[in-house]
Amino acid sequence: MAKILVAYFSLTGNTQTIAQAIFDVLPNPKEIQPLDQVKYLEGYDLFFIGFPVHTHSVPYPVENFLKSFPPGKKIALFSTHGSHTGSRFSREALEHALSLLPQAHLLGSFTCRGKVSPEARELFQKLPEHRAWAVMAASAQHHPDKNDIADAQDFARWVLALYYS
Ligand SMILES: Cc1cc2nc3c(=O)[nH]c(=O)nc-3n(C[C@H](O)[C@H](O)[C@H](O)COP(=O)(O)O)c2cc1C
What we know:
Helices cover 39% and strands 21% of the residues. The chain is an alpha/beta fold. The protein has one domain (4-115, 142-164): Rossmann fold. Helix 1 crosses helix 6 (146-164). The longest helix has 19 residues, at 146-164. The relative contact order is 0.18. The chain binds flavin mononucleotide (FMN).
């Protein structure tokens, strides 16, 4: 059986919720760890790596982690974001994450919305370069919801099927 690692970065818990949902439907042997606790990558066959979109991109700790990822590994990416799913803001971050992994074997990617604290939204709405997503983010307040969780779990099952196909 494949040994699976679910690794995530999460400041306010949204990405962690999705990471845990994915982890719950994966078969053993498996582990789940916040990114800053990942000690080694050898010994795992499949990686699910999750992050929140920060300033239209990938948070620095995640960027560093992805840059140092060994080549040839099978991975699946997931992210959460305040903007609408499929918006330029959510797509660009994922595309950037992929560009950091030119030698990885990507099995799939998943994104969903995640609530932004009212304080953070208020702050970002004052910054011209962030106003668009911050205004959009008002309607993300109930995400990730049970449909997002179900979709993430479907995604995890699909990745697993691809891994074994
Ligand atoms: C510093 C910061 C920057 C953010 N930048 C963006 C952004 O550019 N686009 C976006 O859609 N959401 C942005 N968000 C919203 C987060 O991506 C969203 O709330 C995410 O679900 C948070 O995940 P977490 O709870 O796992 O930290 C930002 C949030 C923070 C705190």
